[in-house]
Amino acid sequence: MEKILEALKKDDVKVLGLYGMGGVGKTTLIQEVAKRAEAMNLFDEILMAVVSQDPSIRKIQDQFASKLGLSLGDDKESDTVRAGRLHEKLDKTGKVLVILDDLWKHLDLQAVGIPSPDKHKCCKIVMTTREKDVCDQMDCKNNTFSVVVLSEEEGWHLFKKMAGDCVTSAEVEPVAIEVAKECDGLPLAIVVVARALKDKNPTRWKDALRQLRASAPTNIKGMHKDVFSRLQLSYDYLDGEEIKQFFLLSSLFPEDNVIPIEWQKRYGMGLGLFHQAGLGGTIQEAREKADSFIDILKSACLLLDGDEDGTIRVHDVVRDFCVSAIASKGQQHVFLVKSGWELTEWPQIDCYYTAVSLDCNNIKQFPRGLNCPKLKCLLFTGIRQEVNIADSFFETMKELEVLDISAVHIPLFPPSLGLLGKLRTLCLDVCILGEMEIIGNLKGLEVLSLCGSRFKDNKLPVGISQLTRLRLLDLSNCSNLLIPCGILSNLSRLEELYLENSFDEWEKESEEEFYIENSGRRERYASLSELKSSSHSLTTLKGMHVRDVRLFPKDLFFSKLTTFQIQISDDLVDYENYSRLKAGLKVEFKGSSIAKDHGICSLMKRGDYLQLSQMGNMKRILYDFVRDLKTLVVEKSDNIEEIIISEEGEAVFPQLKFLVLSRLPKLARFCNVRQSRKPVQSQSLFTDEFSFSISTFKPIKRNSNCMSQNIGNL
């Protein structure tokens, strides 16, 4: 409030915007701002109008005219004539503050009769909205204020004020504290719940807490009418069924937990929420669509930023609204969510459910069959217990599109799994997996996540080779994994492959060489040449570790690869730092040399991080391979004399931020330009912000204007 009042005092501030989720207190706040601005005599006139979701120009004009004591004529007068009269009145009023409450989209100020703040120096506008984008549309520039929920301490203070003295009793107070926490700082929810429970006995308090924790506050007076109805407006305003379903997915995760965006994207892909993916587009296009959804939902304050990168959060009351008000009986989406309940037996699941989420449960026996003909999404996370899935468990789930069974030990998969013909996303993360060749029957599968899981004999099931429509395969953190020969070569539609801390036993391409070097072993593992079948479609290849550069086929080219982390060396991979790279390549040549047209050289040209070592007899690195790098590391190479040599007469590095040179005893020049058409001093090699490290010295800031630099002088 103080920041808004300070902004209103500044002559150059014309339009201010307040945004926040429904029920957070935007209207209350701006009303208080108006009172204080009036007491401080900041304006000659303060006008306020409620705009609402479907704005009526005439109603807005009438609200302003009533406050001004202005007659706009009879009902026959056009909106334009009325706007002219209002504009004329405001033009003569002096300093005016116009408050537009509950704005949902851009409003034409001229059509209402509000003078343009740019032309009328004495007119300022403040608006409240649930959509941050509306502030941008109304040209608030940097004068936007996010109205957030109360802290836990502030929330409890307000709760006590609304509930009265009853919360001070020894029996009620501990329950009341937990009830207040369930309101998660949302002022409207705090006021409604506290007033509903005021002077009620301890039994009613305990019952209310149970309802809130179950995301089903059906008997708490005012929750649906006053709180959920506000959120319903924001939900209804979302444009399209796909974004609404994507939003509802967030309610399937445990309360108070951050939501990994990657999980929500993979579930959304399975449910076909991103049209590009479903109509022959790419996984990358689906990701971009999901990112667009998240931006819209954040702008509408229906989703919040998570505490960690790559995560989001949903407010507890918003989550309750999703489960209780939207995903309830009689609606298109019907959810059963029991996350963190520590169940030991399977709950009653009715035939009308479309999504079921059972998270952090200790259920060990899956029932023989569930009558769930409409079920599309089933999420189950255990606590590392062994589970027995009955043979007929999946028989009636013919519509299932997303299945996630994680953090359990599954000795044997039931034959009914193979009946899930519409299944597109399957997640079996952090599991111990037994016999699972039945997975080969899931012909429509597009997303398969096996992250952190262990397999029978450490071997990836051969049945995966039959999943010819697979587009995303996540094998990250599958330690000691072995991939039998012939699986990867069948996955010709693969677009994303994740191998961090996973398979690295790549074989030589030649079958003859294999049997010469491995006379005691008959089974072959995957070779890099198997990736040729998907080289035309792969856009993401993360965490690939190859022990020897000679294992990399010279004719392996990835025409569409944009995101990759590939290490070709004996060294252990620092996955924590390496995985953050957008396009990183580390190559240890071990004295081997490669031709310019080698597949590795193609990767060098498209990366932003390049680390080269043990380069044998190589004396120089060509500029063409490193021109667009952000980081270049060259080390442990006894014969390197020139780091860069350009035969084109050009040598500038607009992207380079970090350069590390280490253990290069013959290094004489960083850049040697042949046939240069420009004077030596005419160009800058680097931008101003550039870190340069030699050997064991600490990085220093350097701006070099020299086309050729003698290393000794540095």
Automatic annotation (TrEMBL):
Residues 1-164 form the NB-ARC domain. GO terms for molecular function: ADP binding; ATP binding. GO terms for biological process: defense response. Pfam families: NB-ARC. InterPro entries: Apaf_helical, LRR_dom_sf, NB-ARC, P-loop_NTPase, Plant_NBS-LRR, WH-like_DNA-bd_sf. Keywords: ATP-binding, Leucine-rich repeat, Nucleotide-binding, Plant defense, Repeat. The keyword ATP-binding applies. Belongs to the disease resistance NB-LRR family. This is NB-ARC. The lineage of its organism: Eukaryota, Viridiplantae, Streptophyta, Embryophyta, Tracheophyta.
